[in-house]
Amino acid sequence: MKNQFFGLILSMLLVATFKAVAQDALAWTPIQETETEANNSVAVITGHGDVLPEGVVVRFIRIEGGAGDSYVTTDTIANGQFRLEVPTGEGVTVGSLLFDYHAFPTLIRKLYLTPGATVEIDAIDRYMSSWPVKSSVPEQAESDLYVYESKDQWTEYQALNIDYHKFKIKPDVYDQKTDSLSRLIHRRELELLKSRPVGMVWIDIAKNIASMSVRLNIDTEDLKSMYATLDDSIKNSSKGKAIYGFLYPGSPIKVGEKFPDTDFHDLDGNVHSFSEFQGKWCLVDFWNSGCAPCLRAYPELHELKEKYQDALEIVSISIDSFNIWRKASEKIPTIGHNWNEGKENYGIFERLGTQAYPTYLVISPVGTIEDLWVGYDTGELKQKMSIHLKPEGKTEELIN
Length: 400
Fold this sequence. Notes:
Glutaredoxin; Immunoglobulin-like; 5-stranded mixed beta sheet; 3 domains; alpha+beta
């Protein structure tokens, strides 16, 4: 009894520790720039407008590989103004503004920055994704051509987004309307790609269209033709490979089928596959570093691992780039095996057809996919796994 009591206390302490670490990972953690960065590699973003609420915090988040890399700097709005000094390093930094305020859409205002750049934002309304931007960075003007090609649609999309997060519109209605708007926006972007020069912005737009083409039923024949004419240096880049992966995905992966025996990498560079877990149940967690529900699930994943030590393997598969994944893994308390396919969200994840995080799979001891779902609610993981595993952690005997 005494050993059971101390075991219970230890388990509670471990879960509490994971909850605390996960909560820390959810907190804003601005990077402090060095003195050299402050002097030589800073872009300045200023914003002004009557719609900017007094005392609200505005943040710049650097974007890399389609996921949030790090929160760089913050300011508090005063007298309808804010000023952000963003350490940029070399080359072009791509990022977005975020506001701690429910009156703005939970979308992004994409910004391109270079060392010494000045960016002025005119907050003329609540629809931040299409605010006018004056910038000394050429890529910003190029990016905004695509935004203003569909300004009316972007305004409608943002209005729906605000209403949705105020519970004024049902989820299924929201999805139907925003998918329709997204389809129109991407088709207009596709037409614009035909006449614009190939560069950073062109590649970003092409990748985004390709990534959404299956879900939104967008005809990609024109994009495939344009891709075929790109230089090999672009095709062989990480974004070029992603475009190809989205345009030419493998066959869909469905419940009841065998999980593909694909190669994955751990943080030490070792190669793994799910054949290693023959005879055990696997819970697979597809996550990225910018996904708050992914982080909230970690304490429950830890509880599952403790409960089913001998019968269950938990595999966390990051869809971030290798660079972001390594940075995130220094801070985020992943459970079980921490792997990355190296194809971000255009490899195995694309074939699942979800494109949302977290996505979970349950794989049987014989390698078949028994369940697949998206999103996390407290207690859901334990409820799902209790269907497949006995409370004492032993699996049913396999019938050959």
